[in-house]
Design brief:
- Two copies of one chain form a homodimer.
- By secondary structure, chain A is an alpha+beta fold.
- The first copy, chain A, folds into two domains: 76 residues, Arc Repressor Mutant, subunit A (Orthogonal Bundle), CATH 1.10.10.10; 58 residues, Dna Ligase, domain 1, CATH 3.30.1490.
- Helices cover 38% and strands 19% of the residues of chain A.
- The first copy, chain A, has five helices and seven strands, in the order H-E-H-H-E-E-E-E-H-E-E-H.
- In chain A, the strands form two sheets. In chain A, strands 1-3-2 form a three-stranded antiparallel sheet.
- Chains A and B meet through helix 4, strand 6 and strand 7 of A and helix 4, strand 6 and strand 7 of B.
- Chain B binds a DNA duplex (25 and 25 nucleotides) through helix 1 and helix 3.
Amino acid sequence: MTYQTKQKEMLLEYLKASEGNHLTAADVCEYFKSQGLPIGQSTVYRRLESLVSEGIIKKYTIDNQASACFEYVGEHSHHEGCCYHLKCEKCGKLFHLHCEEIEALEDHIGKEHEFSIDPVRTVFYGTCKDCNKGGCHD
Amino acid sequence: MTYQTKQKEMLLEYLKASEGNHLTAADVCEYFKSQGLPIGQSTVYRRLESLVSEGIIKKYTIDNQASACFEYVGEHSHHEGCCYHLKCEKCGKLFHLHCEEIEALEDHIGKEHEFSIDPVRTVFYGTCKDCNKGGCHD
DNA sequence: TTGCGTGCAAAGGTTTTGCATGGCA
DNA sequence: TGCCATGCAAAACCTTTGCACGCAA
C-alpha cells in the first residue's frame, strides 16, 4: 500500500517539468526551499530512490561529479533505446543523444559482440561543436 | 616540476599490475597496508586524481556503488586506430572493441551531431556475455 | 484508526583540505 | 637547500538511518 502525498506529487511534477535536464538531490532540495515549500532531504532521497526503481527516473553519475544525477524519463517507459549522453571534455557540457544509428550500434554490439550496453551509464567523451571551433573556455 | 617518489612508483606499478580490474581508493590503501608499506589515504587520492588527469588511469562509478573506481588504461597516449572499451558493470572485466560499425557511428555523430568523440576516453558500460547468462557474481 | 510517509538529527562512508614534516633533485 | 610530496587529522560532502509525529485512506 502506498499513500499519495503532496511531497510525492510536487516532486514528480518538478522532475517531469525538468525533463531533459539532470538534477542532483541537492538541486531538488534547493528548488523546493526556494519555492517556500521545502521537502526534507531524506524524503527527497527516499522518493528519488523509489522513482528510480519504478523506472520513472534514471540515476547516473558522471565522472568528476561527486553526487548522483537524476533525470526524468517518463512514466510509461518507451522502448529501451532511451538516451545516451555526450560529455564535452573541454567545457564540461552534457548533451543528450537520441538517434537511430546508436540504437543500431547497440543492437550490433548486443548480437555480434554479445555485450548488452547500458545506455544510462554510457557516456561518450569528446569535444562539442562550440569547443571544436576553439571558442569555448567555460 | 614534479618529483619521483617511492609512493608514486609503487602506486603506478600496482595499478598497472591490476589492469583489467577496477579498484577503489580504499582497495588501494588496504593493499599497501597489507604489504606493510602503507600509503596515506590523502596521498592515494591525490595521486589517483593526477593519474586520471594524465589519462593513465580512468575513474568511474558503478551504479549502487558508493565509491569511485579506478582502472589502469595505459601510458600509451592518444594515437589513432586504438580501440573502444566495453566495461562489464557486473564482473568488472574490460573488453576491447574494434569494428566498423562503431567507426561509422563516430563518423555519424561527428557529422550530424557535430560532436567529436574521443575513443580513448569513451567506455561503453553494460553487461558482458558471461554475466548475461546469470552465472557471474563478480 | 492504521500504518505509510515525512522531517529532523545523527550516523556512516567517501573524498578533500590544512598544515607540519619528509625527501627528491 | 628549495620546494614538492606525504601523512595525519579534521573538515567537508553525500547519502542513509532511527525515531517520533503527521496524514492519507
